[in-house]
Amino acid sequence: MIKKTLFKLIIPAILGYCIAYNATAAEIFGSYSKGCIKDAVAFPKESAYHQSLRSHNGRNYAHPDMVKYLNDLIAKVKAAGLPPILIGDISLKAGGDLGPNSDHASHNIGLDVDIPFVFAEPRKTPKELKNLKYIYLVNKNTLTKDFTYERAELIRLAASDAKVTRIFVSPLIKEGLCQFYAGQDRSWLSKVRPWFGHRAHMHVRLACPTDSPYCVNQDLPPEGDGCGQELISWFMPADINHPLPKVKRQRLKMPVQCKSILNRD
Ligand SMILES: [Zn+2]
User: Fold this and answer.
1) How far is the CA of 132 from the centre of ligand 1 (A)?
2) Closest CA relative to residue 148, chosen from 178, 121, 180
3) What digits encode the pLDDT tens for the residues 1-54?
């Protein structure tokens, strides 16, 4: 009798507690560009509808919110009839800087992900994944023929999740999206931010999870779709008579909690 109760009630209860505890064990300290993460989760190398570019070098670790976001996005992409997608850099297991050979300023806390504009169709070989032939949507000052309905929809679907705070793309891609979706609901475009580079991939950023009190959020982007003056300013020549004031970059410090977390892995 005692044995039966043990198997029927107590063991499942303990297992359930462990699973629930693990699901919320991840914790973030610091900001997107200076921080770390405890108990990040490895995002799967592949599924029927995605392939990961970075599982070979350990840059596929994410906060569980990011894992959910990507799984939801993959499901949305499939439901919309778009081809399977590639997932690029997320974070290292303990977070922190991605290393000297990386040109990323962020990706420190498992809440940033790069999604290339190359679809995983045809399916890529391991060699192709390591040396991906990127598709550029911008060449010099124009959009290329690769700025297609499918890629515009991929960006729209990526932005259509409450957890997303920003998606960085080249200013010309943002302009292309503003025109493409003219006359339609463009509220999601407020999250799509013009930024240097980002011609061959988009960079998605999620908000800090509520159960990570030491995670430092970025200010919210301005309201509106950002298709007006703000976007135009990216294409204006610099005014040599009135140079822009130099912005003093805040020197962020690595949170003390990160010392042991970053040394552990
Ligand atoms: Zn990035």
Assistant:
1) 16
2) 180
3) 455 554 555 554 544 444 444 455 899 999 999 999 999 999 999 999 999 998
Output the CA 170–ligand 1 centroid distance in Å: 12
Residue 69 CA to ligand 1 center (angstroms) comes to 16
Q: Ligand 1 centroid vs 64 CA: distance in angstroms?
A: 18
How many A from CA of 104 to the centre of ligand 1? 6
Strands 164-169 and 201-206, sheet pairing: antiparallel
CA of 256 relative to ligand 1 center, distance in Å: 25
Distances (CA, A) of 162 to 154, 186, 212: 16, 15, 17
The residues, ordered by sequence, that sit 6+ positions from 166 with a Cβ below 8 Å of its Cβ are: 191, 193, 204, 205, 218, 221
Radius of gyration over every alpha carbon of the chain, rounded to an integer in angstroms: 21
**Torsional class of 99: left (φ above 0), alpha (ψ -120 to 50), beta (otherwise):** left
CATH code for the structural domain at 25-264: 3.30.1380.10
| CA 12 – ligand 1 centroid, Å | 41
The strand pair at 142-143 and 138-139 is best described as: antiparallel
- Quote the CA–CA distance of 209 and 224 in Å, as a whole number: 24
Report the separation in Å between the CA atom of 18 and the middle of ligand 1, taken as the mean of its atom positions: 33
Ligand 1 being an ion, which residues bring their Cβ within 5 A of it? 114, 203
Amino acid present at 224: G
Tens of pLDDT, residues 205-246: 999 999 999 999 999 888 899 998 888 888 877 666 666 566
